Amino acid sequence: MEGQKLLINGERLKESLERFADFGRTKNNGVTRLSLSEEDMGVREYFRSCCEEIGMSVAVDDMGCMYATLAGKEEKLPIVMGSHLDTVKKGGRFDGVLGVAAGLEVARTLVENNMQLRYPLMIVNYTNEEGARFEPSMMASGVLSGKFDKEEMLEKKDANGITLKEALEKSGYAGDIEARLKKAAAFLELHIEQGPVLERESLTIGIVECVVGMVCYEITLTGESDHAGTTPMGMRKDALFAANNVISAFRSKLSQLDENLVYTMGRMNIFPNIHTVIPNKVVFTIEARHKSPVIIKEVEEIILEIKSFAYLEGCTIEVNKQWDRKTVWFDEKLLESVEKSVNGLGYSYKKIASGAGHDAQFIASIAPTAMLFVPSLNGKSHCEEEFTAWEDCEKGVNVMLETVLDIDKR
Length: 410
Hints:
CATH class of the largest domain: Alpha Beta
Distance between the termini: 24 Å
Number of domains: 2
Largest sheet: 9 strands, mixed
CATH architecture of the largest domain: 3-Layer(aba) Sandwich
Structural class: alpha/beta
Radius of gyration: 24 Å
Helix content: 25-40%
Number of helices: 12
Mean pLDDT: 96
């Protein structure tokens, strides 16, 4: 019918996602597929075979990233889609892999309809996005974009003392530095939201405007250890009591800044951690995330005011900044193309910020970049219960296809 939208095959997309999940599937229908593990090698080879079957060429760079390319009519920079195939331990079937499967389904749809784009179409599988085996996360895209030093990353070790370099060499995925993605006409990443907002508001698509900035500090409170049964309360220097007071003060002050600010005290170590001994030291982290640098600055001011807080219980305090990152805003023209595609398909949507990090935030420094979210059931991710409705997956990939076609027309 004239004017009808070209749509992807939803059943085939579902089959692809389930087939990918077979590599490392857990008994509770999740996935454990750590980067460069045997499971990762299996899914990589399966992905390669799917791409080569429809005439795509597959290259691998020196960080193990895979690039499957469908030739275009013209010598242009590629339109790139993708994400990652590695998972956390007992993760889900959709995180990362949906972005790769989306690229594969778009390519399959073009090939079966005998449609050759002017631009080459490329699908990327970035190595070690999760950082679950080798820290930090988004490692390969960080190296590609110059955010991380390659030699330093190659020496990162997993829990068994194996370096990334050793794992790459053993896997056969230590490829050619010349294969690296250096420039692109556009980079598009489809991802599950990993949060509850789209589901709560009954929306199909999240058009991601940015990956929010964040800051992380480590707080150390030092007191004195004494016997828990013989030391009067008024004579104690209890580091855990002091930490409790500080955390309560943080929560009170930070909650007044902005409703979109999120903050977490995620790691805490207590010493000597014996039930009969008054704690003499507590070390904990506080991280905060928001898209506005003004709000992040106010967060830091509150954290740095900590020494003036009352109720330190006679303890000393140290405040050390661990790291930060600035908000990464995605390409406005590309986001306009995404929004045009969503409207053309008649899907409900909202513009949204990503609180989690993604490869797209690093790739945005070398190519015009956009991200899309589809809903996560109950906001769950990085767990076996992670689920996105098959219909929502299909709609997300339809938006990707329509956006690719729109870019190709320009």
